[in-house]
Description:
- By secondary structure, the chain is mainly alpha-helical.
- The radius of gyration is 16 Å and the shape is elongated.
- The N and C termini lie far apart (35 Å).
- It contains 5 helices and 2 strands, in the order H-H-E-H-H-E-H.
- It has one domain: Rossmann fold (3-Layer(aba) Sandwich).
Amino acid sequence: MINAEITVAEYLLHRLKEIGYTVGATLGAAVAAKDRLVVLFMGDGAFQVTCQDVSTMIRYGLKPVICLINNDVYTIERVIVPLQ
């Protein structure tokens, strides 16, 4: 049986953990597969959270393709706090 009652903090923790994850995942993929093309598509808001990982990519000579999409806002915030 699944307990559907969760606190706001638990909900936010679950929803916010994805923000910026893909930059670090791209770093890991680029290190693990240096002979393959690694491509990242992500929004500008999430990128701001973990953009520091790009400096590590540069330091190690990794060259993933990063496609940054300007979608004007953190999408997760639209889910958590609907526009009024």
